[in-house]
Every structure is written in C-alpha cells, then in structure tokens.
Design goal:
Chain lengths: 294, 336
C-alpha cells in the first residue's frame, strides 16, 4: 500500500513548498498563541492581568473558575436564573437530539435514493441539488413563525425535528458512500431471504458506519457550540453555549473582567475538545463528496 | 375423513382461485389503460420500503423548507399591527411597501450602504484569500508533510472550539494584549476595524473545507500521482495539474453554495458584540439577523421588512449562482 508521503528531498526544493510550509507554521503559531495566552489569563487575578498582560501568572489561582461555576447563569422567563449544571444538561439533550435527527434523516433518504431505482428518487436528488444551489435568504422570521404555528417553539424535540433536514452536504456524503457500495451485498442478502429492513440495518449500516460516525461527530460539535438556536427557539431551555454568550455579553457583574470571561470560555470548551480528541481519527477520509452535476 | 377434508379444501382452493382470476381479469379490464404493466412482487416490496424511507424526510422538508419559504414570501407583503399584535396583509395600494422601504434604505441610509459594501469586501476576500489557503493547506496535509497529524488538529481547531469562544479570545487578545504592543486598538480604530474583522473571518474559517478537500484528494487514483512522480514533476505542478483539476467538482460545491453567503454572512459580529456592533463594522447578514431575533413586538414588526429584503436578495443571488455554476461547468475541463 502506497502512501502519499511527501519525499523529504522534495522539501525545501521549490518556493511553493517553502511558502506553503511557512504559511502553515505561521498559522499554527497565530492560532495557538492566543489560545495559550487565554489559558494563562484564566488563571490570573484581574490585577495580575492588568500589570502583566502577556507573561505567566505570577500566581496560579482557580478563583475565576470558581466564580464562573457559581455565577454562570442565563435568565428564563417566569422561572428565574438557570445555572451551569442545568445548562450542561440542556446542552447534552439539545446536542444529542439534534445530532440524531441531523444524522438519521439524510441517512435513510440518501439510502433510498442511492440504492433503489425509482424515478422519484432522481427527483429527490434533484431537490437536494437545487436547494444546495438556490440561495434562499432571510427566511428566519418566517421560520420562527412556522415553529410557533406547529408548536415546536420552545420544545426541544420539536426543534430537533425542525433542524433535521435531509437536504445539505450530509445527504451528499451519505449518497457518495452508498453509491460506492457494490450492489452484490444487497442482492446476496436478498437471495438469502433478508427483508429490505434487515438489509439496511444488518448489511448496509455496518458497511458505512465510519461515515455515519464522521457525520455524527461533526453535527455533535456544531450543535454543542451553537447558541443562536437556543437563544431564538428555546427560551426556557438555555444551553451552556447560550449561557456563555449571555454571561460574556452582560455588562453588569464581574463577567466584564477579561480573566473571568476567559475562564468561562475555557470551561465550555473543554468537554467538546475532549470529545474531539477521542474521536478525531474517525474523521479523516470519510467525508468525500462528489460533484453536483446532474 | 381425511379424504373429505382434503376434497373440501381442494374445492375451496379452486373456488378461491377462480374468484381471484375473476377479480384479476376484472381489474385488468378496468385498469387496462392506466396500468399496462404490473409490478413484480419484489419490485412492489422495494417500492413500499422506498416510500417508508422517504416519507418522513419529505414531510419534514415540506413543512420546514417549503412551508417556511412560502410563508416568508407571504410575510413580505404583510405588516405587523402593534396594537393587536397581529400580522395583516398590506392593502392593494401599499402591497409593495416593505420592498419600497428597503430599497430606499439601500440608497439613502448610510449604515445600510456601508453594510452592503462590507459584505462585498468580505465575500471577495474570502474567495481570493481563504479559498486558495484552504486548498494549499489541504494539499500539504494530503502529502503528509512532517507533523501533519498535528497540523491537521490545529487546522480543525476553529471548528471544534465554538465560534463564540474563538471570537471572544480574538477580541480580548486584540483589545488587551495586542494594544499594549502596537499602541492602538485594531478593532475600535475606524480605519482598521473592518479589516480586522475580515482577517478574523479568514483566520477562524478553517476546518470543514480542509476536511472535505483532503478527503477528496485521498480519493485520487494513485497511478496518476505515481506517473507524475516518475516524470519528476514538482509539487507545485502536481498540485496545479493533477490535484486541483481532479477535486474541482468538490470545489465547485463550495463556490456555488457560497454565493448566498454574500448576503447572509454575519462575519461573526454577533459573537463579538451581540446586538451592538458599530455601524462601520456591520454586514448585511448581521443587519437582518439582529433585527428579528428578539421575541418582542419591536422584533415582530421587523419580520415583514426582513422577509422582503430576503426575497429581493434571493432574486438577485439566484441568477448569479446559476451563472457561476454554468460558467464553472463550461470552462473548466472535465476531469475524465
């Protein structure tokens, strides 16, 4: 098996390689430097931060984190403030439900379109391409209205259903991986007397499980970090991401201290970073999308 | 006993058979014209399963895509009455009022003009700087440069860490740390403010595209790459003449789908400033986002205006998108 490894004698030979590597290096530094700066800042007292903006903390303190843990809250109408533990719980519910719908809906639809030869399937594929190309802008207001009309507003399950479109890149990713599966599997299973449902669950799903995992991980990350949905559609279920937004943009309390705000940022980022580190190797190589011709 | 029973069974069977034949021939007579062919039972089973699979996705799509967009069009012709807290259709004389007020804002309102200009600048910079960088970085990851595993994680970090966190850290870093070094605040100075926002958008925009480009690159046939290596071509030529043309269909998706971003990109301003970004920093996407997100009458009153603007943007963006798609497919050589 051949790898595409760059030849070491090729390095440094052309301006292109050098320029590319330098850019890559500069970018890495420019991204990691503020990150580490923020990490150190979160362990400083406000006074230490004022005197010594760049350096190591003169004394590592956990006070900022303790303050955030006790005070990170978001207001819920008619209930009062909701605190960090409940917001984490809301975040987990919201993220898991949305990841499920956003992974499952395109999965079944792409399977139907890719593996069954019906004219209507081509029509569905057409819908995906057209909606991908058609730039529909400014329907947020209408979307809020519709969610209220069908009773999905401020309803966790409802919002998850609302977000779980089959259209979009997830469909194309699944479609590409189903198309690359040979039909022999399906036919062999049919001859052995498997039902269509069994073929899908027992034969096909295990074959594309890496793709499902990659799609699910990406959805999980983006829903964990998404605070605008909770802000707009879920007023009584604030998630931790929304809590962070509310906390860092309220000018009243000590949240206006940079050290405290950064500690809040770190606290929210750590869980998703750990999830990513555990699963990161599942992401690569499973996300191919073909063209959009047709 | 057994005989009688089996004879009885025979009779029932044959009776059933003749009934079914009768029904079948009657059916054929009735449906002869409309259904000349009948499906095999296997095919019918497939159809039933196919329908079971697509029913839910299509129902969801019908309500939350088609329904939402039809409602959005209708909304553009309505107004909100704060007294009754209800939406009403505009009368015949003022049917296009929302469109008219948006168009006059676009001409006369200085903030709206700045927002339009900013959106164009941001779009062009993303296209001319961010896209090439994404491609080059993806190529180097695909060629497995030294420490590529580390670079891969770093380039994906902007997607893992929430955009809110990245933008807050960027803002605090610029406003506190960088200001002590260069002597002025890049974000609050008018001259550099929007340029800093553009830089932020490119800097924090890596991630998904790199993931998808590198995946597409690893699907390139090894024999092509090997052939190039035997010919002794440089990395630049490999990038330009083998890799780029072969993954072009994937790039096309981002180019075509990205045009709507011209009107919808908020430039991360809501993360930076909440609802209170300065006028000289705003983009069109931000302007319309902050108008409608609150749940109060002032926000509801903006729904029709925002929907009308959205409808106009869609009408402008659609032909541009189709033209770009057409041109890309026509003038870029096929990858066969």
């Amino acid at each position: 098996m051949r790898t595409n490894k760059i030849q070491h004698d090729q390095l440094g030979k052309s301006a292109f390689t050098v320029a590319g590597l330098v850019l890559l290096f500069l970018y890495t530094v420019s991204f990691l430097a503020p990150l580490f700066w923020a990490l150190f800042t979160s362990f400083k007292t406000e006074l230490d931060f004022m005197r010594n903006t760049f350096g190591f903390p003169s004394k590592f303190i956990l006070d900022n984190y303790i303050y955030v843990f006790d005070n990170l809250a978001a207001p819920v109408p008619r209930v009062g403030n909701i605190y960090i533990v409940e917001m984490f719980y809301n975040s987990i519910c919201y993220t898991v439900l949305c990841t499920l719908t956003h992974t499952f809906t395109p999965f079944i639809c792409a399977y139907a379109v890719a593996k069954f030869d019906f004219k209507f399937g081509k029509f569905i594929y057409g819908i995906v391409i057209v909606t991908l190309i058609l730039p529909i802008i400014g329907n947020l207001a209408s979307s809020i209205q519709v969610s209220k009309a069908v009773g999905f507003y401020d309803n966790l399950f409802g919002v998850a259903i609302m977000k779980g479109y089959f259209i979009g890149t997830n469909f194309l990713i699944y479609y590409a991986s189903f198309k690359s599966l040979p039909n022999d599997f399906k036919e062999a299973a049919e001859i052995d007397g498997a039902s269509q449902f069994q073929i899908l669950t027992r034969v096909v799903t295990p074959l594309v499980k890496t793709t499902i995992g990659a799609v699910a991980l990406l959805s999980f990350i983006s829903y964990w970090n998404d605070y605008t949905t909770a802000m707009i559609y879920l007023p009584s279920r604030p998630t931790i991401a929304y809590g962070l937004y509310y906390f860092t943009h309220s000018s009243t309390n000590e949240a206006s201290y940079v050290t405290v705000a950064i500690a809040a940022c770190m606290l929210v980022t750590i869980p998703i970073f750990i999830v990513f580190l555990i699963f990161k190797n599942k992401l690569v190589g499973n996300m191919a999308v073909g063209g959009i011709k047709g | 006993m057994k005989n009688a029973f089996s004879r009885c069974l025979e009779k029932i069977k044959s009776a059933c058979y003749s009934v079914s034949v009768a029904i079948h021939s009657a059916k054929r007579k009735i449906f002869k014209k409309s259904r000349p062919r009948t499906m095999s039972s296997r095919r019918r089973g497939e159809l039933a399963f196919f329908i079971a699979l697509v029913a839910y996705p299509l129902a969801q799509f019908a309500v939350f895509y088609i329904g939402v967009n039809i409602n959005s069009v209708l909304l553009a012709f309505q107004h909100f009455d704060t007294g009754t807290a209800q939406f009403y259709f505009n009368g015949a004389g003022e049917l296009f009022d929302n469109f008219a007020s948006f168009l006059s804002d676009l001409r006369g309102n200085a903030a709206r003009i700045t927002a339009t200009l900013n959106s164009v600048i941001l779009y062009v910079c993303t296209l001319c700087i961010a896209l090439p960088l994404n491609l080059v970085f993806s190529f180097f990851l695909y060629k497995k440069v030294p420490a590529y595993g580390f670079f891969r994680v770093v380039l994906f970090l902007p997607q893992i860490i929430s955009a809110l966190v990245v933008s807050l850290m960027f803002r605090y870093f610029v406003e506190n740390a960088l200001t002590t070094v260069i002597g002025f605040n890049l974000l609050t100075t008018k001259k550099t403010g929007f340029a800093t926002i553009v830089f932020y958008n490119i800097w924090a925009g890596f991630g998904t595209q790199i993931l998808i480009y590198t995946s597409a690159m690893t699907k390139i046939d090894d024999s092509l790459v090997e052939f190039g290596e035997l010919e002794g071509i440089s990395l630049l030529r490999e990038f330009w003449q083998i890799t780029l043309p072969l993954i072009f269909p994937t790039i096309t998706i981002f180019l075509v789908a990205g045009i709507a971003g011209l009107f919808t990109n908020q430039a991360g301003l809501y993360n930076f400033y909440g609802g209170g970004a300065r006028d000289d920093l705003q983009t069109l996407g931000y302007v319309f986002f902050v108008r409608i997100i609150r749940s109060d009458n002032a926000s509801y009153a903006q729904y029709p205006y925002a929907s009308a603007a959205g409808l106009l943007f869609t009408l402008v963006a659609t032909p541009i998108t189709l033209a770009v798609k057409y041109l890309l497919e026509k003038f870029v050589p096929s990858t066969e």
